[in-house]
Specification:
Blueprint (H helix, E strand, L loop, with lengths): L10 H91 L19 H38 L3
Length: 161
């Protein structure tokens, strides 16, 4: 019997050497992947910070735009309210003028009985006055709607695009 020593000869030696080589290669690959993972984590952290910064800036801009839109709406509403009040004053003035002077023209001078025409003057005057009052109401509603639409259009046109 021959002494062989500590080293094994033959196929076992090659198996251990191959296993050692595989372990060294895998350790190197693990080191490479670990460094790549750290790089990706750093890039992802920077991406998250940049995204948060951009999101905060967009949120701040949206709040500023919302505040500006609210001020513009308040101003438009105030202008609309003023226009409606002016319109209502004009309608009241017209009603008062019609109530004072009456709708029908005065009778011709020299008429024997100004109340005795082919119609009852007070009834006709009352009917025509009622008609004029209802028409005035409709005209007022229409004018108020037009004023509201004009205010809405002015507001919409002044919004930033």
């Amino acid at each position: 019997m021959k002494q062989r020593g500590l080293l094994l000869a033959g196929p076992a030696l090659y198996a251990f050497a191959g296993a050692g080589l595989i372990i060294v290669v895998l350790a190197g690959l693990l080191k490479i992947q670990t460094s790549r993972l750290e790089t990706c984590r750093a890039e992802f952290g920077a991406f998250k910070l940049e995204t948060k910064r951009l999101g905060d800036a967009a949120e701040k801009a949206a709040k500023e735009r919302e505040a500006a839109d609210a001020k513009l709406k308040e101003r438009t509403d105030a202008n609309h309210k003023t226009a409606v009040a002016r319109l209502n004053r004009d309608i009241k003035r017209l009603r008062d003028d019609n109530a004072r002077r009456g709708i029908l023209p005065a009778s011709r001078p020299g008429t024997r009985d100004p109340q005795a025409a082919c119609f009852s003057r007070p009834d006709l005057d009352r009917a025509v006055s009622g008609f004029v009052e209802r028409v005035t109401d409709l005209v007022g509603e229409g004018a108020e709607a037009v004023s509201g639409l004009d205010a809405a259009k002015a507001w919409a046109q002044s919004l930033p695009r």
